[in-house]
Amino acid sequence: MLKSIAVLTSGGDSPGMNAATRAVVRTAVFEGVKVWGIYNGYQGMIEDDIHELTSRSVSDIIQRGGTFLGTARSDEFRTEAGRKKALANLKSHNIEGLVIIGGDGSLTGGALLSKLGGMPIVGLPGTIDNDVWGTDYTIGADTAVNTILDAINKLRDTASSHRRIIVIEVMGRKSGWLAMMSGIAGGAEYILVPEAKFNIDQMCQDLKKSYTSGRRYSIIVVAEGAGSGIEIGKQIGTKTGIDTRVSVLGHIQRGGSPSVEDRLKASILGERAALAVISGVSNVVFGFNSGKVVSIDLFDSVNNTKTLDPELVRLARVLA
Ligand code: ATP
C-alpha cells in the first residue's frame, strides 16, 4: 500500500473534474494516505507547483465547473526531458502514485510518463468530448451536452418566429459526439460531424424544397471539426436564399455547474482511482460501460480511437 499519492487535472477543463478530484482526495484521507495536488496540469508538475491537500482543501467544490487545481497545455511535457523533470519533482515530495484526470492527450502523456517507470499511474477520462476509447462516459460530457441543448432550445424559439435557418457550431475538433447527442435531443434537421460525409449542395436543395412546402425554420448543428459554422452558414444562406444565422457557442460549453450524472460518476470514479493507485495498480483508466464501472488498459485506451456510434448517425438521418 502506498503512503503518498498525487492528483492532477490536464487538458481542457470539464465540469465534474472538481468532483473527481474531491473524491480522490477524500478517499486518500479516509485511507490514511497523504495526498498532493499538482496545480496547472503537466506544466505545474514540471514547475513543481505541487502542494499537499487535506479534506478541507476540497470543500465547497463539488458544485463548481472548471477545476480548482487549474489546468494547462504543456509543450515541455511532450519532450522526454520535460517528463523526466516532472517525475523528479514528484519523487522529491516522496509521491509514490499518480491519478491523472484528463482527455485523450493527457492520458497519452500519462502513458509516456509511465514508460519512464517509477510509480503507478491511474487515469480518469475528463473531457467534454466523450472521445476516450474504452469508456462510453467521460467526466463533463453530460453537463456540456445539456448546456448545448439549452442553447438549441432557445435558438429554436427565435428561429421559428422569424422563419430562419439557424446554424449552431459546437465543440468537437475530432469527435462529433457533442453535436450528435445534442442535435438528436434538440430535434436538429441536420447534424454535421467530422466522422460522416455530408453534401452541402444536396442539403441546400432539400432545405429550399422543404421551405417551399411550408417549413418555418431549420436547426443545423455543426461540430467544429466538420467545418466552420460561419462558413457553412454563409454557403447555406447564399445557396438557399433563406435568411440564415449562425451561433458559435464557444467556451460557454465548458462551464457551468456539473449535472447529477457528472457529479455522481466523477465521485465514483475518483474513489476507484484512488483505491487502485493506493494499492499499487498501474496503467489503467477507469470509466463506465453500460452503466457499470470498467477498468481499461491505459495503453489500449490511448492507442485506439473511439468512433461515433453509427446507430446514432443513422437515427439522426431518420428523425431529421
Ligand atoms: P481535451 O479532450 O479536453 O482536449 P486533452 O487531455 O485531450 O483534453 P490535450 O491538449 O490533447 O488535451 O493534452 C493535454 C496535455 O497533455 C498537453 O498539453 C501535453 O502536455 C500532454 N500531452 C498530450 N499529448 C501528448 C503526447 N503525445 N505526448 C506527451 N504529452 C502529451
UniProtKB/TrEMBL annotation:
Tell me the residue numbers annotated for binding ADP. Answer: R22, A23, V24, V25, R26, R156, G187, A188, E189
According to the UniProt entry, how is activity regulated?
Answer: Allosterically activated by ADP and other diphosphonucleosides, and allosterically inhibited by phosphoenolpyruvate.
Enzyme Commission numbers on file: 2.7.1.11
Q: Which Pfam families match?
A: PFK
Check the record and name the InterPro entries matching this protein.
Answer: ATP_PFK, ATP_PFK_prok-type, PFKA_ATP_prok, Phosphofructokinase_CS, Phosphofructokinase_dom, PKF_sf
Write down the chemical reaction(s) this protein catalyses: beta-D-fructose 6-phosphate + ATP = beta-D-fructose 1,6-bisphosphate + ADP + H(+)
| Predominant location | cytoplasm
Name of protein: ATP-dependent 6-phosphofructokinase
Instruction: Give the gene that encodes this protein.
Output: pfkA
